[in-house]
Design a protein that fits this description.
Length: about 230
Amino acid sequence: MAKDLILIVEDEPSIAEVVGLYLNRAGYQVTFARDGLEAQNKIESHLPDLIVMDLMLPIVDGFELTRWLRDRNDVPIIMLTARRDEVDRIAGLEMGADDYILKPFSPQEVVSRVRAVLRRTSPKPGEPSEKPLSYPSMEIDPQTRLVTIDKREITLTAKEFDTLWLLAQHPRQVFTRNHVLERVWGISDYIDPSTVTVHIRRLREKIEPDPSNPQHLLTVWGVGYKFEP
Ligand code: CA
């Protein structure tokens, strides 16, 4: 089986080196870029399976690089940051990252997160297959991770898809924000629950004809969210 390719975008050589070493030992193929521009060139020539990227980068920073990426594809992104004040923005994934790690971190933590994000975003063949959910105007396919609305394919980030999939698998069941965090992020005490709010808002913008008057992703005031087929 081909090894997953991880692109490490980091301008501090010592960090890039140790993260690369650990990922390599964990069985991943690793490639490096020292700034956002070099990363763009690498990505255009060969799309990695996952990107570990520092937020503060020369030339093109992590925010800009993520926006650039999200206009093109949904390759999973794990953001490294030393800036606590940016965590909400990253965790809220307003910028489209799939996970983040606060510096300083242990390289082993990066390996664990890489594994977790890859497991979530690219289920390996042989894992139990889940059938698409079909409604009159909507289909949600867990294999291709595509949502089709009135024959139009909607692109979702990994976390957006997982959130929708969780709710849609249990129609009309109410999930609290912490419940969604636990099931989709797996770390309920680590990320601000408002992250879920941000995701629901972005999902509504993508799948609801009128996002301010949602028909599928409903708020249950004071409790959480539910999916109405
Ligand atoms: Ca940096």
